[in-house]
Amino acid sequence: MSTDQIVVKGPDGASANVAGGASAREALEALGARKGQVLAAKVDGRACDLDAPVADGATVEPVPADSDEGRAILRHSVAHIMAQAVTDLWPDAKFAIGPPVENGFYYDFDVAEPFTPEDLEAIEARMHEIIREDQAFRRRELDRDEALALFADQPYKREIIERATSGAGVSGDETADVDPDAGSTVSVYENVRADGSVWPDLCRGPHIPTTRWVPAFTLQRVAGAYWRGDEANPMLQRIYGTAWESRKALKAHLHMLEEARKRDHRRIGRELELVAFPEELGPGMAIFLPKGAIVRKEMEDWIRAETLARGYQPVYTPHIAREELWQTSGHLENYAELMFPGMDVEAATYRLKPMNCPFHIMAFNARTRSYRELPLRISELGTVYRYERSGVVHGMLRARGFTQDDSHIFCTDEQVVDEVGGCITFARDVLRTFGLGEPSRVAVSTKPAGKSIGTDAQWRHAEDALREAAAASGLDYVIDEGEGAFYGPKIDIHARDAIGREWQLTTIQVDFNLPERFAITYAGEDGAPHRPFMIHRALFGSIERFFAVLLESTAGAFPTWLAPVQAVVVPVADRHHAYGDEAAAYLAGLGLRAELDDSDDTMGAKIRRHQVAKVPFQLIVGDTEVDARTVAVRPYAGEQRKDVPLDEFAEELALAVRERRT
Prior knowledge:
Elements: E1 5-9, E2 15-19, H1 24-29, E3 38-43, E4 46-48, E5 59-64, H2 68-89, E6 94-95, E7 100-101, E8 104-110, H3 117-132, E9 136-143, H4 144-150, H5 155-166, E10 185-192, E11 198-202, E12 216-226, E13 235-244, H6 247-262, H7 265-271, E14 275-276, E15 287-288, H8 290-309, E16 312-314, E17 320-322, H9 323-329, H10 331-334, E18 343-345, E19 348-352, H11 357-364, E20 369-370, E21 376-385, E22 401-411, H12 416-433, E23 441-445, H13 456-472, E24 478-480, E25 490-496, E26 502-511, H14 513-517, E27 522-523, E28 529-530, E29 533-538, H15 543-554, E30 567-571, H16 577-589, E31 594-596, H17 603-612, E32 617-621, H18 623-628, E33 630-635, E34 641-645, H19 646-658
Parallel strand pairs: 1-5, 16-21, 20-27, 23-24, 30-31, 30-32
Antiparallel strand pairs: 1-2, 3-4, 3-5, 6-8, 7-8, 8-13, 9-10, 10-11, 12-13, 14-15, 17-19, 18-19, 21-22, 22-29, 23-25, 25-26, 26-29, 27-28, 32-33, 33-34
Helix pairs in contact: 2-3, 7-15, 12-13
């Protein structure tokens, strides 16, 4: 093939050749791509605008509108449209950053007064006008001085430009504005109005060709957000919205959000008396009430039994340690912003632990270890504390105090792949047991661009081990570039709940840094000291988060084996209480969680109450049941049955609990 041809590759393996010098859009049209189906292109693996010229000999691939990357480009474009609308309506507004985020986008503004619901309506109406105007997104490359002059009256944009071009760097959502590796040049996108005037925004792109390519969007809410997440900086107004590749997709997403609102674990937790969030405890702290504690105990009992059966050794460790421990581990250097302040006691400073790993290293170091002991798997249900900002705390899904099913495996280099593979298998067993099915996404996260410790060679070696283990599991996996922990790469395992939301739960990390920092060794077969590898793994992620995900997925209707009350006996009249009490006691004697409802309420009121409480089984007993020693079985979901012998039902229920049916 000559170099004056562009090779166009489609996601289905189709390919075509077009003349050199074409735009990405012209190249993709050779594959039959139509407006709206493809929002951008990848040229030699790098995302770019459809109107970007393509060099001779390049490989061009489409970015479909319904892909994650396509949706991110669409949402980023709509964020620009929203910023233009805001500055059209509030000319003195200062705009900061507006990146795409999971399922949506936001933009931060510095305005004199907080936005009202009526303001959101006006902004959305102006956005529709901009979309109808079919304004083109035009890219320009500017040097530092040109960019600073363009945004002379926009202090937040100037700050980003100055940091990016001076080598100070940017991070997080600011990378939507500038490429950290761009050097002294930044890119700007201009929305070109019908009269030829432009509205510019600092942005690395890519974007959709014109505003008319937006098929469906809506604005959702306003929140406060500190600039750069620092409480010492100005409080900005953050407008959230969402955009999708079709009206149908937007409608489905909004329906899912309504379902999610109904299933909010904080609301259901209060209604079903499972958990409480007292203000006196502060944000991100929960109390498990008796019914919730039963569910948690079942979770903990299962994971403890399974870890012991798989060769793990349990430990218990304290909640605090002297600050020197966290200096050695590197947490004070790389993780301090998520640690609670120190406590000065007897001329020493102590810190609440944000992680259990240094304590498990102390357990490993309790005596000299031999290669014969490896892999050594140490496990603990360890409570940790992290200073999450109040703005991001969300019940038990993003908490400040939580308990991890935390384990650390000390092993040789040769054992890493098998041990990681064992963790993946264990994680799949967790998801299946608790009714979440197979993993929906497996991601290998590589070295972060910011803070990290260790050499490039160590990172590559650990990343290769994770890739090999992920491939050996038979699961499809993706690479999340730059998303590793500061001390090593990791595998994140996600699962989907009953309404289609994806949750990141299990984390498996390969760590070559902490063994080095703590100078831990084992005696090898040659008698010499050797450095072990260390694998961190939390399968639930945290007990609290996993509990919240289960609660929202089931809407409080836990599978029978997890339910706080598995069966409640409902007598028809007072004369049936004695048999009802006998039936409840019989079930309880088999280890089942059964209660008698001997309240003075009518039978109809009792049935409604237990249905609302989502008790798996109600057993109605009246004259017929007393005489025949049977029960009328009324399940929370499913067909009702009459004249079921009590011992037969008890056996069925006990079997369902033993088999942990979901």
